[in-house]
Amino acid sequence: MAKKPVHYVVVDAFTETAFKGNPAVVCFLEEEEEKDVEWLQAVAREFNISMTCFLTRVATSGTGGSSPRFRLRWFTPVTEVDLCGHATLAAAHTLLTSGMVDSDTIEFMTLSGILTAKRVPEMKSSDISKIQGGDVPGIWIELNFPVVPIAEDDDAKRISSVSKVLNGTSIIEIKKTVKDDHFVISQLRPDHFLYPINTIVIPSAKEVQPQFDEIQRCPGRGIIITGSAQPDSGFCQSIFCPKTWASPRGGVVKVCLDGQNKKVALRGKAVTVMRGSLLA
């Protein structure tokens, strides 16, 4: 008996322009138990872009008001990962704009727990139903993600190397992510108010002159420098990851931190650029 095709789409996330943003493949599986991990990994390797994700609808109890739920897994060409923002946005965009769900909110069951995505209209509600080429124009999608925990970094050698990276810029505090792959550096301009360290604090770009050659020698994938901005503009942010390939495609993401609930909201747009079927 011939294998049933697996439908997929390619979506450019965090953009509203084709061939911009961050691309991801979204594959739709009807019965995940028929697809083992080796097959999922082989598909991701075949597409060979940064992320391929797999969606499987999960049966709900049928109680009124419950959001549709899908199992969501993410694969790079070489391994499965615990969390991916742009592929989750791509999956949510596809579900919300294809008519596959009759809801403004979706829940995803993932290795990082239950994640939610919701439609945030940018235009009048009467215009949202107008679908052009498979995409609903003018909507943002908001993802609710867990905050990555950070801890104190008391490694004297690392602190010294970070100071060198920033060309001698004064440092208030250094923290690291629990996976030890990013470092958060808090810096204060003497004439500005410093927000509490346990919130997202971002530095003045005018004061930071990073040495990129030195950043490449630092442990971890990169550094996130934080501090206060101009009095009337709150925060600004600088992230330096020269070890990671940076795309010239650009993109837009809005971020809002809910420190009390340890959640972060990522808001962005997306556009579908390709549709097809897997035959193998």
UniProtKB/TrEMBL annotation:
InterPro entries tied to this protein: Phenazine_PhzF-like
Isomerase recorded as keyword: yes
Membrane-crossing segments per the record: none
Keyword Isomerase: yes
Keyword set, alphabetical order: Isomerase
MF-aspect GO terms: isomerase activity
Gene3D superfamilies attached to this UniProt entry: Diaminopimelate Epimerase, Chain A, domain 1
Domain of life per record: Eukaryota
GO CC field: cytoplasm
Family affiliation: Belongs to the PhzF family.
Protein name: Uncharacterized protein
Originating organism: Corymbia citriodora subsp. variegata
